[in-house]
Input
Amino acid sequence: MVKKTIYDEYGIKVTEFEKVGRYDSFRLHQTQFVIVPVSHIEEEELFELYQLSQFMIEKREPYVASFVLTKKNHLFFEENQVRYVVMKCSAYTEGRSTQPGRDLARFHAKARVYPYQVTKTQRIGQWKVLWEKRLDQLEMFWRGKVQTQPLTQFEKMFVESFPYYLGLAENAIQYLVDTELDEEPLPNDSGTICHQRFHSTTWNPALMIKSPVDWVFDHASRDIAEYMRHLYFEKQEQLKLEGFRFLEEYDRTSPLSPFSWRLIYSRLLFPIHYFECVEEYYLSPEDVKPLFEEELNRILNDSAQYEAFLRAYASMLSMKTKRIILPNIEWLTTNS
Output
């Protein structure tokens, strides 16, 4: 059915589909196209992402996928009430780089000079509001669950662990506020193109596709912190070597200000991994719920190590930036 729709909308005759990562894809004259569902993105936001991608392609950023417009010049098509875009992959998609920190710094530097106003994809300066909203919603939900009986295994873990993560989230928000009061942003702290969640496979090393559908406009520290967090959960034993090497590469290519170092820390303090796990558990179908139960269990068992990771970053930070006196997070330093 989708083949017919693509032919009707784009005039492209698809012979067969193959999977590229999570997406359906097809080839045409040696060029790879991917079909990406975008129902979660508003039309105006899609248009901004289209403009950002055009800008990065003009800046000769390698591997950026471009939106293919329909015959009527629309950005997307619909099939069974789901909205999709067709993205054309860059001709050179064989990933080669082994320096993700350097590459990310260069990517951010190019995107920082984007000359137009960004509204729908804008996240810079909004962390505090977004975090507080998320925290309030989960706290209300938690209060409801505390009154409920019986609880599933997942819910028991959630009810017991939430006060700890509430404390961590409040610390992160306070830390963010202190950073914005104490530190002066430098030119490198202006907004740039970031990713919803940047990690070691976002720019897939086998088939390199930089997909604009994953982008937001934010402070570069978002990508750096999420890369470190993901590395912590995926490759804990390599984190010390790989994570701090990633930071070094980035800092060497595009020096990070004290403001940036502290924003990274405030973002690592905010337990997005915990929030997402709980939210996704309740949004997912029954057969997938056990996966989130396992993940929550792992997060909770790992909390002491995560604290150790936060302490390691904090001690590196005070060595790195010398003049920064980190606001002390009492319980984090006394738990060691």
Summary: The CA atoms of residues 107 and 300 lie 35 Å apart. The chain has two domains: 2-98, 127-207+214-334. The mean pLDDT is 90.
